[in-house]
Write a structure and sequence with these properties.
Pfam family, one: ox_reductase_C
Bound molecules: nicotinamide-adenine-dinucleotide
Number of strands: 14
Radius of gyration: 21 Å
Number of helices: 12
Number of domains: 2
Distance between the termini: 61 Å
CATH architecture of the largest domain: 2-Layer Sandwich
InterPro entries: Gfo/Idh/MocA-like_OxRdtase_N (IPR000683), Gfo/Idh/MocA_Oxidoreductase (IPR052515), OxRdtase_put_C (IPR013944)
Largest sheet: 8 strands, mixed
Protein name: NAD(P)-binding protein
Helix content: 25-40%
Strand order of the largest sheet: 8-9-10-7-11-12-13-14
Structural class: alpha/beta
Organism: Exidia glandulosa HHB12029
Oligomer: single chain
GO molecular function: nucleotide binding
Length: 372
């Protein structure tokens, strides 16, 4: 094989290998980016039968067989570490896609990144969002630790930053010297397709803002900049209120402790350091808006066929832009692999430390929404 690119996946769930839930599927993008160069050294997941089913599928496909021919399955990072004693540097990149409760922390059982950087000092890291499910302070410490040597390439999977439509908005803002005055993000989840029990349990996922609306909080920060500490105000509709009743849940919520059940609606607003204002409504429809002096940028359907509407002071007519074939999941892997090969993080749009800023914002929203 020409110049193989050795990768390890930690987690073998939906985000890594795809599901009917959505377009995410890390493996597919790594296969597209690297083709025959992809060499999947190992997959780590306590659900070994799931790993085996995945490997059987990959090996059954002639175009992928070689990439997965020698993939080893491990049930824990400790087993990977033990197996790679003496050949640590053969791993070029590690993609971490477990539920957040197992990573982004300092305590045992939540410290996947710290285990990895200790055992594999030369491996580059691509990490799923959100960066953690525990303390914000600990997440920042993890970020500082993994980025401390300055040489490690680290990317976080805030893929909406890689949308061409988002790049276009940033270009127009920069070219016209605009300042973002307000961001307004709305998102609704098709909850009747979410069958993962951890998603419905705040103690495991952090809740729907921390776990999911995080993408829109992150995009808001990408445009609005740093959020003023303590400025977040929020309200929620809780699971036990009349407006919070759901008829089509796929999980049995009675098994989740009442205090860990997720809110159904969260509405929040905050101030940016620039003086601008941000707002989020997690429930109704996937729409995001960014306002800048005389300009209005509306980004619709970011997960599907992104549509960007721009209004400028020059006209009442909206300019509508589409971006056929744009795949931010591919673009984030493309940028990460290019960074690993070039040694420069320049193309990576989401660093761990910056992603901690989004994590902090989502926790501030959750905490404010739970205030009685
Ligand atoms: N960027 C996106 O658009 C996007 C989309 C979906 C999910 N995600 C994120 O990906 C993460 C995983 O979500 P998912 O949908 O794949 O969940 P999932 O439940 O489908 O899969 C998680 C997998 O992780 C495994 N796992 C649990 N603990 C582990 C450990 N300590 N080490 C290794 N594997 C472990 C589980 O056995 C399971 O197979 C979450 O943080 C989620 O927010 C991101």
């Amino acid at each position: 094989m020409r110049d193989p690119f050795n990768v390890v996946f930690i987690g073998a769930g939906n985000v890594m290998f795809g599901s009917p839930e959505g377009a995410w599927n890390q493996a597919l993008r790594w296969e597209q980016k690297l083709g025959a160069r992809l060499n999947m050294l190992a997959i780590v997941d306590p659900d070994l039968p799931r790993v085996q089913r995945t490997l059987d599928g990959k090996r059954g496909d002639a175009s992928l067989r070689n990439s997965y021919a020698n993939t080893e399955a491990f049930s824990a990072v400790a087993d990977l570490v033990a197996a790679y004693k003496g050949k640590e540097d053969t791993i070029r990149a590690i993609v971490v896609g477990t539920p957040p409760a197992f990573r982004g922390g300092l305590a045992k059982g939540t410290d996947i990144e710290l285990q990895i950087i200790k055992a594999f000092p030369k491996a580059q890291l691509f990490i799923e969002k959100p960066v953690a499910a525990g303390s914000v302070k600990d997440a920042y410490t993890v970020g500082e630790t993994i980025e401390s040597d300055g040489n490690r390439i680290v990317g976080v999977a805030y893929m909406l930053r890689y949308l061409k439509a988002v790049g276009h908005i940033r270009k127009v803002i920069a070219e016209r010297g605009l300042t973002v005055m307000a961001t307004h993000a709305r998102y609704a989840t098709a909850y009747n397709a979410v069958a993962k029990p951890f998603w419905w349990d705040k103690s495991l996922s952090g809740g729907p803002v921390v776990e999911q609306a995080t993408h829109f909080c992150d995009l808001s920060r990408f445009f609005g900049g740093s959020v003023v500490p303590g400025s977040v105000q929020a309200r929620a509709t809780e699971w036990n209120e009349p407006a919070g009743q759901l008829a089509k849940m796929l999980v049995d919520e009675s098994k989740i402790p009442e205090e860990q059940r997720i809110p159904r609606v969260t509405s929040a607003n905050w101030k940016y350091e620039s003086g601008g204002v941000g707002s989020l409504l997690h429930v109704v429809a996937a729409r995001s808006r960014f306002f800048a002096d005389g300009h209005l940028f509306k980004l619709e359907d970011p997960y599907g066929k992104p549509l960007l509407r721009i209004r400028t002071p020059a006209s009442d007519e909206e300019e509508t832009l589409t971006f056929p074939g744009d795949d931010p999941f591919y673009s984030e892997v493309d940028a990460f692999v290019d960074a690993v090969e070039s040694g420069s993080s320049q193309g990576i749009l989401s660093s761990f430390k910056d992603a901690c800023g989004t994590y902090e914002l989502t926790w501030d929203i959750r905490t404010a929404s739970e205030r009685k």
